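New to this. Explain the following:
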Amino acid sequence: MPRRKSSVLTDHELRLMEILWRKRRATVADVVKALPPPLLAYSTVLTTLRTLEQKGHVTHEEEGRAFVYRPSMQRAEAAKFAVRHVLDRFFGSSPGALAVTLLDGARLSAEDLAHIKRVLARGRKGGK
């Protein structure tokens, strides 16, 4: 039975996903070669890619004797899952509490403030 899709990537998994998102498809050897330091062993990368596939984050196809891995989730989707995880665990599922924490004491540009105001105005109008 396949593993339940985990919404949050570990730091280790994220390193490999960054490469797959950038390359769109890669063999284990391609990923090993593209990794910035600290380097990982081929077997570690292979095991992690298999785990990512079990979790539903990547798929593979066979090309000759090699497996070519592709991301099955976009970076933006992974980011949304990670934010949702933080929101649920630390802020009682309250986007307002998260926003206040993020913005409290932050130095924002006029452009950032204008964007935030537009988003808040949309929220008051029922998301239109």
User: Anything to note?
Assistant: The chain has two domains: 11-71, 75-124. The first strand starts at residue 58 and ends at 63.
